[in-house]
Prior knowledge:
This protein is globular. The relative contact order is 0.18. It has a single domain (14-167), classed as 2-Layer Sandwich (BirA Bifunctional Protein, domain 2), CATH 3.30.930. The longest helix is centred in the C-terminal third of the chain and has 18 residues, at 110-127. It starts with 10 loop residues before the first strand and ends with a strand. The chain is built from three helices and ten strands; from the N terminus they run E-H-E-E-H-E-E-E-H-E-E-E-E. It is of the alpha+beta class.
Amino acid sequence: MAEELPLMKVCLVCDLGLVDYRKGLLLQEGLLNSRKSGAISDVLLLLQHPSVFTIGRSGIVENIIVPKETLVKEGIPVFHTNRGGDVTYHGPGQLVGYPILNLREDSLTVHQYVWNLEAVVIRTLADFGIGGQRISGRRGVWVGEEKVCALGLRVSGKVSMHGFALNV
């Protein structure tokens, strides 16, 4: 008698390279709607963005520590987003991951999902001999007192978008 194997969940991983933030956001929104309707399985977008600052729902433009004159001179745009969190810088060389996942299928709460994302980053850093950690009361992953990975999410209809930005 053949042994029955457990079902594996399908997740399409897309390594997109350097993607303009606005185009990446539009792609996420389209995938979010397709995932909510059940038209597609889970998707993980891996990419980088040209230099950009994003401001989450709890952030304000005054939290950007780069002078406005520098942003203008360097042509660095600022986007207000519908994700959680404060200000995040994205730039070339940073690994950005946007998981478009149906949390309901795995019976995950948003807090469990965030915890799991942080755990994956911590384990990945450990694979490279880097001691990442959580710091109580602060979101993200830290190496010592330095934040190495920012997290900011939006969940709509139990499907996630936005994700993490890992400084590599």
